[in-house]
Amino acid sequence: MTLIAPGAGSAAGDPLEGPTATVDEHGTSLWRGALQRLRRDPFAITGALIVVVFVLVALFAPLLAPYAPAGAQWGNQVTPSDVPGPSADHLLGLDAFGSDLYTQLLFGARQSLIIGVVSTGLGLAVGALIGLLAGGIGGWVDVVLMRVVDVLLSIPSLLLAVSVAAVLGRTSISVMIAIAAAQVPIFARLLRGSLLAQRNADYVLAASSLGLRRRTVVLSHMLPNSLGPVIVQATLVLATATIEVAALSYLGLGEPNPTVAEWGRMLVKSQNRLETDPQLALLPGLLIALTALGFTLLGEALREALDPKFRR
Amino acid sequence: MTVPAVTLAARRREGTPLLSVRDLQVRFTRRGRAPVRAVDGVSFDVAPGQVVGLVGESGCGKSVTSLAVMGLLAPRGVEVEGEVLFEGQDLLALSSDELRELRGRDIAMVFQDPMTSLNPVVPVGTQVTEVLRRHAGMDRGQARDEAESLLERVGIPDPARRLKDYPHQLSGGMRQRALIAIALACKPRLLIADEPTTALDVTIQAQVLELLKQLVAETGTAMIMITHDLGVVAGICDEVNVMYAGRVVERAGRRELFASPRHQYTGGLLRSIPRLDAVRGGQLTPIPGSASDVLPWERGCAFAPRCSAQDADCLVPDLELTLDDVRPEHRLRCVHPVPPPGAAL
């Protein structure tokens, strides 16, 4: 190693004093930072693309679909041994009842999205409220609420969903409640856990030292710091919800109205034609898997983007 | 009517103290184990406008003392006894709601680590304005304007823009300035600074200390400065309490203490830091052992196991904090004090 000649060092620029990144980032929150990281993640982009296409299809199904989803308009063309395949009139052919398969698939996306979003929203709202009360108040409130959640959690989610659907009867609403009920414990425990992790944080002590009310400390300091994992979980749960919607209607507990297109029911109804017309089951199955994959990719990428350990 | 400065100073000396801590005891109780006495009979006074130092190494109970004064110790597993009189009112007897009214308005605190003491997901501005809205009854607009002038006062450039920033966008020194602005927002009468410069680098330390000194002098806020850094003490404190193993072992004015430390522990501390007037190439003398080598106070001087002057006489149960016979402004808890300079040999 040679000694740097006097005067040479400062001109060359000490690496420690070199120009640091002086990008103007005033008001950039952790969330915006996470978004920037997401944009560089190919998995996130793939997931987001799938989700966006799914949502657009669900929203604009009536515009995209060539026919109304009334069902069975071409029932006379379907024979017990044969379902008409793709033709000029029907892009993907007919389904087992004589409805346009393409139309049914598009409207099925709509049903999956509505049930998935509503049930996850419901599960998130109730679960987060329980978690907030348990983690924010603590004491016996925490003990009681968490035991209730433990009981809920000990029942397998599909079984829970089946029993709720069985009690409330076969409607879309009972499917939503059933799926939401299975999600409540997940969100409750998650939010309570992250609130508890914040409880001994320095900034919580500092906020308390300012005489802020307990409610303010919990709601405007601890809660915003605890939401990250909950939002990630909500994205991941949307994937499970899509599958559960299909599973419930596969089990015959879904929407009873046959004119409402539903991917899960499309699977059931095409079971006995699997050998002759596999596309009837394969296409809705593929869509269920693809949607779940999209939400999972997006959720996992979001988890990484928000996790300080993965931050570069 | 303005009070002449002389009378103010006189009132500071004679008047009733702003804060008077009397025989404060804090015990941490753990199931199935002997309780730990973190603070073991600490008493001290803080007069209006005075800066009182609590000095000692890690684990001596200085931070626990400050948290007990603020009423911020966890409610479970902690027993607090004694009196904390703030303007004659015992803070330990107040309900948590009454205490909450006081905190942030009359007594505020600056914490050690500016990196973690600001909420990372809330803009700095919101964190300044919320205390103003809570205690000063300001609306959003007033609080924002006041927050801007507060940030300006603590030396944060471009305060309007900084208010929108998140903590991670501020440097460590800036963050500590912001925390000081928050603590001083409601013009508290007592500020407790718990190692406010420990997490900062040396040049920033000096700036932050200077800022604290200036703000305290301007507003007449009394301050408790908690630190392990004797340099900080020398720079800012009027009176110094040296703590060891949960008790105050020596109390003196700043000049007194540095000119002639009397307790063996204080003497050891001063010998272990470099001095400008020391002989060049002279060696520093560390205190042997660690803070965990303590004797329980009820058996003798807790510092005896590490003390070079200790002998059998040191095993006096519950040594008292007594007036020094050589230095009248001095109190200490020691059997064999360091001889004052000039008296040696």
From TrEMBL, chain A:
One Gene Ontology CC term in the entry: plasma membrane
SUPFAM superfamilies hit by this protein: MetI-like (SSF161098)
Primary location recorded for the protein, binned into one broad class: membrane
Residues covered by the ABC transmembrane type-1 domain: 109-299
Superkingdom to which the source organism belongs: Bacteria
One GO process term, biological-process aspect: transmembrane transport
Compartment(s) where it occurs, according to its Swiss-Prot or TrEMBL record: Cell membrane
Keyword terms: Cell membrane, Membrane, Transmembrane, Transmembrane helix, Transport
Membrane topology, record value: Multi-pass membrane protein
Transmembrane segment boundaries: 42-65, 113-141, 148-167, 173-191, 230-253, 280-302
Pfam families in the record: BPD_transp_1, OppC_N
Disordered, as annotated region: 1-24
Similarity annotation: Belongs to the binding-protein-dependent transport system permease family.
Protein name according to UniProt: Dipeptide transport system permease protein DppC
Organism, as annotated: uncultured Frankineae bacterium
